[in-house]
């Protein structure tokens, strides 16, 4: 067949597949994307590549998801800024979850540049929110994280977008508690909870509640912190947010460590570790490994402490999580010290 005949045949097959699968067409998204690409019909090809990317991301196949989003971007012209922005947001998320920091940084830079050229403040807010997440969770530059969150908040307020306002306050609050400003963090996170409820954003409500619990714990109110974690966990499970479930189980485990209930802590953390690994959230896995190392250290099980802390160290180095790397090294040092000299001499 010549090129024109092949193109028409690919289009015919794609149309037939859509008719055959109907509402279940998503199950053949990859095949449809290929047929439409070969047919030279880029709009439906991008639609199915984007769907395939979302499906791969939902299955924690982060590298595969990024590949589909990249293919869709390759079919999207520079003039189609809004679509490019959405595809970049989706790909940056896969890079974040998969720990591909160099690629993530490149997408963040493009998102920031593109947001400045698009009409409306919502895009500027989106780009600033991703920047805040990177500064707070990856780089641990909390001053820059606060600045990015404030930028996102100002843009969201300009747009009258309550959902994005809640998200900005959520990242602002986390940046604050991480640098020890617990009361200020509680104020931002409390407002984030209220705004998320107002907007009906259950996932953001759960996230804000969890971080409000952390700030509350650092203020010395352990019972209220545990109650906030449990509320956030119930919301995460209600909407099927496995990443949120993993994080809340990790925080509940941490609260049990503070309470001295080490076996209960272990149960929460082991459950959270299974969830984190199932959804491929390696950052949450690193946090939970650190908490499990802390449980083992408090129980005097130094070989188990070293095992968990070594895993945390390897994962945090791979993901460029410097704060967790420092935490793992500190825990390893404490375990070796106790194992060598005994706790009675070196409390």
Question: Strand pairing plus helix content: what structural class?
Answer: mainly alpha
End-to-end separation: 80 Å
3D shape: globular
* Helix proportion: over 70%
Low-confidence stretches: 343-347
The count of helical stretches stands at 17
Radius of gyration based on Cα positions: 23 Å
Mean pLDDT: 94
Order of helices and strands: HHHHHHHHHHHHHHHHH
Query: Biggest sheet, open or closed, and with what strands and sense?
Result: none
Strand content: under 5%
How many β-strand stretches? 0
Summarize the structure in words.
With 347 residues, the chain is an all-alpha fold. The protein has 17 helices and no strands. It has helices spanning 3-21, 29-38, 42-58, 62-74, 81-98, 101-117, 121-139, 142-159, 162-178, 182-199, 202-218, 222-239, 242-259, 262-279, 282-298, 302-319, 322-341. The longest helix is centred in the C-terminal third of the chain and has 20 residues, at 322-341. The N and C termini lie far apart (80 Å).
How is this structure best summarized?
With 347 residues, the protein is mainly α.
Top keywords for this entry?
347 residues, mainly alpha, disordered C terminus
Helices and strands in order:
Blueprint: H1 3-21, H2 29-38, H3 42-58, H4 62-74, H5 81-98, H6 101-117, H7 121-139, H8 142-159, H9 162-178, H10 182-199, H11 202-218, H12 222-239, H13 242-259, H14 262-279, H15 282-298, H16 302-319, H17 322-341
């Amino acid at each position: 067949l010549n090129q024109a005949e092949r193109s028409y045949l690919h289009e015919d097959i794609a149309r037939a597949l859509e008719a055959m699968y109907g509402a279940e067409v998503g199950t053949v998204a990859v095949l449809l994307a290929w047929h439409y690409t070969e047919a030279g019909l880029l709009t439906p090809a991008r639609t199915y590549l984007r769907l395939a990317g979302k499906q791969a991301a939902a299955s924690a196949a982060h590298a595969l998801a990024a590949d589909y989003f990249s293919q869709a971007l390759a079919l999207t012209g520079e003039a189609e800024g809004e679509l490019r922005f959405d595809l970049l947001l989706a790909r940056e998320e896969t890079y974040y979850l998969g720990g591909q920091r160099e690629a993530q940084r490149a997408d963040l830079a493009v998102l920031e540049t593109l947001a400045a050229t698009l009409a409306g403040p919502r895009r500027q807010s989106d780009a600033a929110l991703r920047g805040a997440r990177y500064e707070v969770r990856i780089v641990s530059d909390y001053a820059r994280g606060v600045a990015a969150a404030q930028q996102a908040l100002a843009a969201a307020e300009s747009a009258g977008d309550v959902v994005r306002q809640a998200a900005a306050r959520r990242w602002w609050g986390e940046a604050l508690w991480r640098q020890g400003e617990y009361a200020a963090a509680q104020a931002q996170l409390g407002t984030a909870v209220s705004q998320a409820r107002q907007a009906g954003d259950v996932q953001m409500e759960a996230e804000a509640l969890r971080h409000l619990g952390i700030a509350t714990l650092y203020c010395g109110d352990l019972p209220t912190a545990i109650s906030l974690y449990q509320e956030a966990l119930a919301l995460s499970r209600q909407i099927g947010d496995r990443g949120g479930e993993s994080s809340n189980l990790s925080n509940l485990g941490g609260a049990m460590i503070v309470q001295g209930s080490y076996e209960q802590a272990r149960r929460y953390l082991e459950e959270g570790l299974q969830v984190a690994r199932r959804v491929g959230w390696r950052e949450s896995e690193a946090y939970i490994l650190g908490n499990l190392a802390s449980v083992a250290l408090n129980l005097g099980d130094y070989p188990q402490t070293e095992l968990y802390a070594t895993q945390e160290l390897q994962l945090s180095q791979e993901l460029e999580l410097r704060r967790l790397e420092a935490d793992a090294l500190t825990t390893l040092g404490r375990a070796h010290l106790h194992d060598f000299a005994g706790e009675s001499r070196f409390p």
